[in-house]
Amino acid sequence: MEVDTQTIVALQQQTAKIRNVCILAHVDHGKTTLSDHLIASNGLIHPRLAGELRYMDSNEDEQARGITMKSSSISLLHIPKEEPREVLDSGYLFNLIDSPGHIDFCSEVSTAARLSDGAFVLVDAVEGVCIQTHAVLRQAWEERLEMCLVINKIDRMILELELDPLEAYTRIVSIVSNVNMVLSSFESEKFISEADAFLDYQEDLHAVSINREDDKSDDEDEEDYFSPEKGNVAFGSAFDGWAFNVQQFAKIYSKKLQCKAEPLHKALWGNYSFSAKSKRIVPIKPGSGGTPLFVSWILEPIFKAYGACMPHADHKGILQQLADKLNIDEKSKQLTQHADARVALRGFMRSWLPLSDAILTMGVQFLPNPRVAAPNRIDRFLPQQDGNQNDLLREVKEAITSCDTRETAPLVIYVSKMVSVPLTSLPRKIGQPSRSLDAKEETFLAFGRVFAGVIKEGQDVYVLQADYDPITMAHDETNPSVSKAKINELYLMMGRGLEFLDKVPAGNILAMSGLEMAILKSATLSSTPMCKPIAPLMFQAAPIVQVAVEPAHPGDMEKFENGMKLLHRADPLVKVIFQDSGEHVLCAAGEVHLETCIKDLRERFARVELVVSPPLVRFKESIAEDTVATKTVSVLTAGKACELRIQIKPLTNKVSSDIETLEDVLVALMSADTKERNLEEIQEKLVDLKQSILQASNLQNVCHGIWQFGPKRVGPNILLMSTKNSEINLWMEPDDNVVHAGKTKVERHTEEDEQSPKEISPATIDVPIPTGSPHISHLLGLDKHSSSNESYKGDAILQLLEEYGAVHADSLAEEKESLITSTQSAIHAIISGISAGFQMASASGPLCDEPLRGILVNIQAKLCFSQSSTGTATLPLQEDVFGPFNGQVSAVVKQGIRRCILENSPRIVEAHFLCEISTSSEGLAAVYAVLGRRRAKVLREELREGSGLFVILAHLPVEASFGFVDELRRKSSGSASASLMLSHWERLDIDPFFQPLTEEEREEFGEEGQGVGTQNLARRLIDAVRTRKGLPVEKKVVENATKQRTRARRK
Q: Residue 136 CA to chain centroid, in angstroms?
């Protein structure tokens, strides 16, 4: 079927005929091969090249590596066989997006899923549900996409595993059941990490397989999402170009049996067999040994066809016999006579069960058009709005909900990413002069979808960033969250090519030029400023791998900086950081992603020679989780007006992880206006965090007094408020448990001092003051009745001063008023200083200036009043000498927290990947050897059902992961492959300052405290980070001192 742009443009006007679909799968499960066959059905590539050309992989790196790295879109036409062949009457427009399967490029999956309404999820019939399969199912579920399941590579079960049809059927049933199990578990796993969810799925899988027979009656009562009898599951081989679903065979056999096709749907998948005696379909009784219809009527003919590829088989005779039985046309029969058995088999299978017809017809039936999908996805696109919103906002939301295609409707477009393309690849209009351009010059196109209205060439739009608020910012022209831009050209994306469009109605995917200066990565476009921005994308991974990059020649610095800006815009996940030290740091999701970014920067964007540092791995700092009794640190401000005592405790990894996972929710909770906040939805998301805090032993008594998180007020560290009746009184700590940092301790005012004839300095009166407020506890619903300590009235302060003797009853009113005012100002300065100091300390720890993680901080303060001989109390802030008082407090708080960590078993915290390794038995020993050298912790090893592959799950430190995949492939001679996903943070339980003192310790741990002949691992990691940051490092200049040899004099 030939395709022209005019036909596509005509179908774009018919919303009911549009299907926006992405293809999702684990790496190497056949996404791009499947896309090739769908593209070949439209005549864009030759059918013989389908599966080999990899049409959607237009990048050289993609072709060289054999994996997809960028999501790309193409528009295809499909006419179901049953429909009349008039395109505009019965044709359907598929806007197909091929997405990567490698975890390093998961951001491209996010951009594809946001623009789609449905998804084809591919699963390898041999490998089954893998780690990235689980991740893409989660992504589709979060984006509320309708899905169809495609079990690919059936040919591998026949030719590689050599299974018989019944064994293959058992394997297929298991895969369908496993995928349904993943989807059913998402509701309860909604807010846990992807790696933890995958591990939970693996743990449940074995138990489910054992109890499958016992629970079969219960499972029948629950409706599965994917069910072959419904028709939303297809089976096939993208490599050989064929596919089918149960409905196809039901229609074939209904004609032979002269019955309706609908009853056969259930029979062909369920436990039913055909009785040759009664000529009826009957249920299979337990123990009867009956053969399911799916085996006898579907798999056995396919297996018989693949018998043509067996050694010494007469492939021409076998395929000719099958072709005659199935009434294959004469042209297709000629293909079965090819000399190569596999080529002949492909020709036969493509004629019998064409892949494009099965997959696209299934998409027409089970995937929604934009108008049907919009109401189900609107809550994901737009946050909940109050009923008091104005009419314009409601009109925009209704336009998106109904996918309004009228030209008068409000225009809403979501741009999911900026695509970098060579200027020479842009099409040229008729009569437009040719452009003499550099072949390597790049331009950016905005890749997006129209959700409401109609976009026209040359139209002006408002560019709305994610933090834009139409209520408060609509009329603020200087606000950076909103800007105006003009769209130059509109393009239809056809894989490697582009076609001009005059206008595009709602429900379609497009590319736009002219927005490269207005959009960094993603944004919402609208014809009116009274529009809520569409919710930002959700990424499965974070940019954890970093390198420092600089040009080899200083004269290329300007080109280099421009190239870094272009790379930052071109990749949705990459981050570029310009540090105070002058370093340009590039952050990527993984090793392959990093290599791709460096190559693009060198060859496409900057086009200069680069100097790239070794990978910079992110660490965090904490204290040992088993720390019970901790030292208390006492610090004094520069003017000696305030003394603070600081104590820290470790937080459990569960509490820290929950805070990190819900970072976006906490940002919305603390920054949004109360009237606009959807409290019910936010409170539902915070249930797991509240439970973790309540279950933590060191938080049970203080959970009602949580003041702040840090760093950035949403990090995995907690600051407690202090009150007069606090559960823990740090001023009662014994002296031997208090460490005095910085200045010497202030002289205390006691009765003995009054009787002493010596008077070295004016006496001081200490007044403990409450600090902070239960701000976080109140937001989390852990403390609904406590009052805030952020403001203090004069009466309360006067009572506090009188209680501790700073003010006497006979003091003058003016003195009281002056002292109350100064005290009130000092208390506010202390509160702001503690808050700022905590945020600074949690962002930069003492070991290597890395952020803190898992620290509970308790800070209590005293004001130190100086009392003269006349009895008058004053507060010596000395701001004219030492600067603002809140700055004095923040400095000593930061110093005190860092000292407190060093005094209480400091630990380095490192990130870990969840590693899934598939290997044959021959490569098993090599896999364990590589894992052992890289400090990996093996979690599970199992033999995958129905195959000879072993699957190993392990936690691998990110620091030890560089070069892991290449070494694994090299050591196992290519028999092992690995997938990595960021899993969690974990304390490295090694004291970086441990020094063996006794002979026994030296024998056991060596001189370095790590092992005989081994350097202390934690100290090595810390020193490496400190050296990179230019911080001082304690290093032996002479490792092994020997007596200097005296050279012999020449005579």
A: 11
> Which has the higher per-residue pLDDT, 701 or 676?
701
For 6, 49, 92, 127, 510, the CA distances from 9, given in Å and listed in that order, are 5, 27, 12, 40, 12
Cis ω before 551 (30° cut-off from 0) = no
Which residues have a Cβ under 8 Å from the Cβ of 611 and sit 6 or more positions away?
A: 549, 550, 551, 552
Distance CA 831, CA 773 (A): 9
**Residue with the two structure tokens 């409000």:** 410
Share of the chain above pLDDT 90, in %: 35
CA geometry: angle 65, 66, 69, nearest 5 deg: 80
Q: What is the pLDDT at residue 677?
A: 45
Task: For residue 494, list its beta bridge partners.
Answer: 497
pLDDT of residue 804: 72
Checking if the pLDDT of 810 tops 70, the result is no
For the stretch 420-426, contacts whose Cβ atoms lie closer than 8 Å and that sit 24 or more positions apart, written own/partner, are 420/444, 420/566, 420/569, 420/570, 420/604, 420/605, 421/445, 421/498, 425/497, 425/498, 426/498, 426/513
The pLDDT of 579-586, averaged and rounded, is: 81
Q: What letter would DSSP give residue 872?
A: -
Say how far apart CA 915 and CA 961 lie, in whole Å.
10
User: 399-413, 569-583, 1037-1051 — which one is most confidently predicted on average?
Assistant: 399-413
Instruction: Classify residue 513 by its DSSP letter.
Output: S
Q: What is the DSSP string of 115-170?
A: H-SEEEEEEETTTBS-HHHHHHHHHHHHTT-EEEEEEE-HHHHHHTS---HHHHHH
Residue 937 Rama label (left phi>0; alpha psi -120 to 50; beta): beta
Asked if 611 contacts 552 with a C-beta cutoff of 8 angstroms, the reply is yes
Would you state the structure tokens that stand for residue 290, as one six-digit string?
């009956």
Contact 173, 61 (CB under 8 A): no
Both structure tokens of 263:
């009853």
Measured from the Cβ of residue 437, the count of other Cβ atoms closer than 10 Å reads 12
Distance of CA 270 to CAs 107, 254, 287, Å? 39, 17, 16
Identity at 685, one-letter amino acid code: K
Residue 218 binned pLDDT confidence (cut-offs 50, 70, 90): very low
Q: What is the pLDDT of residue 747?
A: 41
Residue 790: pLDDT band by 50, 70, 90 thresholds?
A: very low
pTM score of the predicted model? 0.78
Distance CA 705, CA 720 (A): 6
Per residue in 94-140, pLDDT (tens digit) is: 999 999 888 888 888 999 999 999 999 999 998 888 888 888 998 99
Residue scoring higher pLDDT (209 or 944) = 944
- Angle 384-388-392 from CA coordinates, rounded to 5°: 85
Q: How far lies 474's CA from each of 395, 462, 485, 678, 901, in Å? A: 16, 10, 15, 22, 47
Q: Where are the beta strands (DSSP E) in 800-936?
A: 855-867, 873-874, 906-919
Nearest to 743 by CA among 923, 622, 539, 891: 891
Rounded mean pLDDT of 364-382?
A: 91
Cα separation values, 35 from 49, 58, 140, 342, 470, Å? 12, 13, 19, 21, 41
pLDDT at 434 over 70: no
286 pLDDT band, cuts 50/70/90, is confident
| Closest CA relative to residue 179, chosen from 156, 160, 152 | 152
Determine the Cα–Cα distance for residues 86 and 1008; give it in Å rounded to an integer: 80
What is the 3 state secondary structure string of 801-824? HHHCCCCCCCCCHHHHHHHHHHHH
Position of tokens 């079927």?
A: 1
Are 237 and 29 a contacting pair, CB within 8 Å?
A: no
Q: What is the pLDDT of residues 486-524, one digit of tens each?
A: 999 999 998 888 999 999 999 999 999 999 889 988 999
Please list the helix, strand and coil fractions of the chain in percent, rounded to the nearest 5, in that order. Answer: 40, 20, 40
